[in-house]
What we know:
With 165 residues, the protein is α+β, with helices and mostly antiparallel strands.
Amino acid sequence: MRENIKATVKNILTAYLELNKHRKTPERFTILDAVYSMDGHFSLEELGDKLTNEYNFPVSRATLYNTLRLLIKLRLVVCHRFQSTTKYEACFDNNSHCHQICTMCGKVTEVKSQGVIDAINKMPTRRFHKDGFTLYVYGICSSCQTKMRRHTAKGNETKKVQKSK
């Protein structure tokens, strides 16, 4: 299935470039292929590393930015600005999804929620066609909650020891 998606997004990029009389450069198509070979969210640096290490196709930071900007415009990639970082994600086959973001450690987890999808699909809009959505839910992950409980418990024990002296 992934190869079908890669062929489809390549056709979309090709059609756009031809229609707008832009050059069909190997960099654009290699970056597109690398993006659709990655699972989940990735940073600009991770994409650059993949191109260099796995594709043996190093490109400049400017080429990465410009190509990602084009892919975002074509809705083939989505840009997420999580707390302190920017991540990208291939989105042609996944236009609607939710993210849980831990406000302590920054961990991002993608969540499938049919209830949220159904609610947004049923949401009335006026003179507007919905293509997809991204929802961000902020909170504290279970790992950070555990660390907080341990820290609090440790602090309470220290206070008890100090009071008993």
